[in-house]
Amino acid sequence: MVFFRMNKIYFLCLLVLLATVSKAQNGEKATASSVKLEVPWPQFMARHDMVWDQVPKDYYEGAFVGNGVMGTIIFMDDQDLNSLRFEIGRTDIYDDRKNVNPHANCRLPIGQVLLTPAGRISGMKMRVDLWNAEARAEITTDAGTIKFRCFVPSDEMIVLVELNTTGLEKNCRFTFRPQQGNSARLMSLKDPEYIPNPPFQLGQEEGMDVCVQPLLAGGNYATAWKEVGTGTNKRVLYVNVANGIHGGGAGREAVKAVNHAIARGVRDMEKAHRAWWHAFYPASFVTIPDERIESFYWIQWYKLASAMREGLPSVDLMGPWFRMSSWGCYWMNLNEQLSLYTVHMGNHLELGEPMSQWLENSREDLINNAPPEYRYNSASLGNPTNLRLIASAPGRSNLSFIGLPWLVQHLYLQYRYSMDDQRLRDKIYPLMSRTFNLYLHYLKLGDDGCYHIPLAFSDEYGYAEDTNLNLGLLRWGLQTLIAINERLNINDPMLPEWKETLSKLVDYQIDEKTGLMIGKDVPFAKTHRHYSHLLAIFPLYVLNIDDQPERRTLIEKSVRHFDDINAHHSVMYRYTGASSLFAATGNGEDALRCLQNALTILPQGPTVKENTLYSEGGNPTFESPISAARNVLDMLIQSWGGTIRIFPACPSSWKDVSFHDLRTEGAFLVSATREGGKTKFIRVKSLAGEPCILKCDINSELKMIAPKTVTMKINKDRIELSLKKGEEAILYSGSKPHEFIVKPLPADSNDINQWGSQK
Q1: Could you tell me if 360 and 408 are in contact, meaning their C-beta atoms sit under 8 angstroms apart?
Q2: Does this model's pTM top 0.85?
Q3: Strands (DSSP E) along 359-461, which ranges?
Q4: Tell me: the pLDDT tens digits for 585-632?
Q5: What is the b/e burial string over 508-533, where b = at least 16 CB atoms within 10 angstroms of the residue's CB?
Q6: 359/378 Cα distance (integer angstroms)
Q7: Is the CB of residue 649 less than 8 Å from the CB of residue 582?
Q8: β-strands 173-178, 111-116 pairing
Q9: Strand, coil or helix: what is 358?
Q10: Residues contacting 486, CB < 8 A, separation 6+
């Protein structure tokens, strides 16, 4: 009888426990409005606008606008200090000579529109309106005022400048100053083998001013421009650059484009332009308690969307804002990769498409870049290249692998953030397998029973055997190929060789005092802005603190040594690289410190780069500021290794942080709010029905709002949710808030609009 009563008590306790678990697992039903995004977008973006109260002195202070391929940057002309220059650029204006020095196949200059006042300039105020993606300015002279706004319509290849004048400034004038279309690098180096293109030709077609640049390779490109009066002291300038590199006829096309824009009208173009941008920004949202960094972050999204669009070329080192540069090509050993690492997490996969489609559509060229004897199963890519991915990587005596394997990781991430298995099978996997098969032709089986990589280059440090750069890339590639085979049931004939190679691949080369080396017998002992030897930690994550806790000391030591030895190396991406590396170890304090240092790098030139554009040696390098935006995201969310980490490296000073619809691997949209240093809630929405595992600091009284079919399992510091495609769940602790809201943090009016050029 006693036994029965005891069992009854146990049974009742069990029922209570099961009811409690059921409530924790199922809770209330989540709805589409479970989390509200309350952002007054025009006002929020306005506090991040770049502003000027003086004439910007050069390219790195100027205001810029673009539509993904065509753009202009506005600053004081260096030949006439009383004129404002609109430097015209178009990303796909490249020379296309065959079988020549790759530096001859580079970006070509177009020219500048000059706005010359009738009087002497005494003052200027200018603003880049991020929300509407346009530059607005008022110039004051001793003859009157000139107000203008400039934008590049999202669906037209037109630079548009709308002018309104007072006083004698009705006599201000626009002129076009062409530039000869030759390789900036080879002309500046006075390469004796470089043959200049024919001179440009100024003339008229259909009564419109046109400049045509013939090319030795055949074809041409052309600029057409026209002013149209729209009222008393009002006029509009239309400028088009047409690309006739593959066929000619650019002059006619440029005139046609200008006439089409005039007939369409400014207001219609403005409406479509603003609609595009107003849909772009809200795809995701981030707010942090540092106005300077927050503004920098949002300006990078403006730059990315101004420099890349789906269906257009991928961004190079300058985007649509041309400047004479020694680096007017596509550099595939870091620059291109860092330009792309932000787009996936920011929920803008469309910005990852230009590179993804470029790689997928260049399969034959990539195969032909490999040595002839390996083309049956391999592909390769050298550095640099132009709009055609034709560049052979160095061969046996000086191996260089980095370009294609690292770019293929971007291609794979484009898949992981979308989970399009058909694309993975048909396009990504075939190129990925060829990319890593190339390594197998060079590996050596040593007496130690391990596969070794012969002497190869570690960008940009030097040569070594068993370079950690390539050990990291190859290890990631083999693991990924094996995982794809398992997921898609491919059973590739190469699978046994990949598995054997992975099992016998030599370990990373390590120095006990400083951590990861460059390679065998080559320590990391001098400043090295390129963190190539640390790619296994970031961005590959094949060497990480979660799966290999026994290697935490090695990982932290390696990152610390990289940061210490480069303490006085004033190159921006050295700091942004260190920030993401620290974030990968969960160290938010040093991740933030390195990001802050990155934003204080002074130019290697005469002016401060307050428009967030960046250069090395006077050459634009688009990727470095973009990688700083990735630093922000790495502190807020990470999703490598099958786990979504919420606030994994959030610095202690960021006590209040919110984000909405950041995207993760596995195709999840995640929103979260942190208050007082603690996570208040997390919303996860599944777009593909993949396994969902979370790691966060909500570890007590965890509650969930989700459909009744959703279950939650907690295993130590991991939370597993059974979300089907289209389902979402909200996790929180404590009392249930009346509403789950993501909104901007308040900003002090003294802290906003910190970028631009101000006295």
Answers
A1: no
A2: yes
A3: 444-445, 451-452, 456-458
A4: 999 999 999 999 999 885 444 444 589 999 988 899 999 999 999 999
A5: bbebeebbbbbbeebbbeeebbbbbb
A6: 14
A7: yes
A8: antiparallel
A9: helix
A10: none
